[in-house]
Specification:
Blueprint: H1 2-8, E1 13-18, E2 28-33, E3 37-38, H2 41-52, H3 64-69, H4 79-87, H5 92-98, E4 101-105, H6 112-121, E5 125-128, H7 150-158, E6 163-167, E7 174-177, E8 183-184, H8 186-199, H9 216-223
Parallel strand pairs: 4-5, 4-6
Antiparallel strand pairs: 1-2, 2-3, 6-7, 7-8
């Protein structure tokens, strides 16, 4: 959502205060740059150097309400525009016809609102685990690993869900459980997505991957010429 907003509003930077998939005590800042990209190492190093030169005693503060009243801070609510942008990229009518039941585990994090809104708009039945927002993530690491998603896996099997979807604390990592309760690793998801784009969306072109990503992508690319 922040990446989308930075891009749509033409902003030079965006910030998220988050521990990501780590324990809450690791809370820090994620920085995004123009176009909605992750800040590269050069930018983060420059920011760190600037912070190191600061004298804490010279840093001024102002009450939030006062800053907002004076125009230093402007509040915006891009949620609906973001949801619309997501819905434009998927086949909503096809998903509606599928009549899916989906179990979602946001792991006490912030991702539930967006995902549930998209799924309900597509007429899916949505069951939610760990729905309440907890800044301590229930005392666990909010990382959607196979071990962490055993409860979701059991829920999918027992309630005959079509799929289970989990997100980490700030919703930029995905964990997926198939209809048989099996955990799908990220590399498996990448292969499925690439195959889907080629086979069903008729998209063409090479696939670019990094060194830590499965070579099975190479084989899929080769099989499609």
């Amino acid at each position: 959502l922040i990446m989308y907003t930075v891009k749509q509003m033409g902003l030079p930077y965006g910030l998220a205060v988050t521990a990501s998939h780590n324990p809450a005590i690791y809370n820090g800042i994620k920085i995004f740059t123009a176009g909605g990209q992750d800040a590269n190492q050069g930018i983060t190093e420059r920011i760190e150097e600037a912070c190191a030169k600061l004298d804490p005693g010279e840093i001024k503060s102002i009450p939030y309400a006062q800053a907002r009243a004076s125009g230093l801070i402007r509040e915006g609510y891009p949620f609906n525009a973001y949801i619309d942008s997501v819905l434009q990229m998927v086949d909503v009518e096809q998903i509606k016809r599928a009549g899916l039941r989906i179990a979602v585990d946001p792991m006490y994090g912030v991702g539930l609102g967006s995902l549930r809104t998209v799924l309900l708009t597509c007429r899916c039945d949505v069951d939610v685990l760990h729905e309440q927002h907890d800044t301590l993530f229930g005392g666990r690491m909010p990382a959607p690993s196979a071990d962490a998603l055993r409860l979701l896996s059991n829920y999918v099997i027992e309630n005959r869900c079509n799929i289970g979807i989990a997100m980490d604390g700030d919703a930029d990592r995905l964990g997926v459980i198939d209809e048989h309760g099996q955990y799908l690793p990220a590399n498996t998801l990448l292969v499925l997505l690439y195959y889907y784009f080629l086979q069903y969306r008729n998209l063409q072109g090479p696939c670019v991957r990094n060194n830590s990503t499965t070579h099975l992508l190479d084989r899929v690319a080769q099989s499609f010429g």
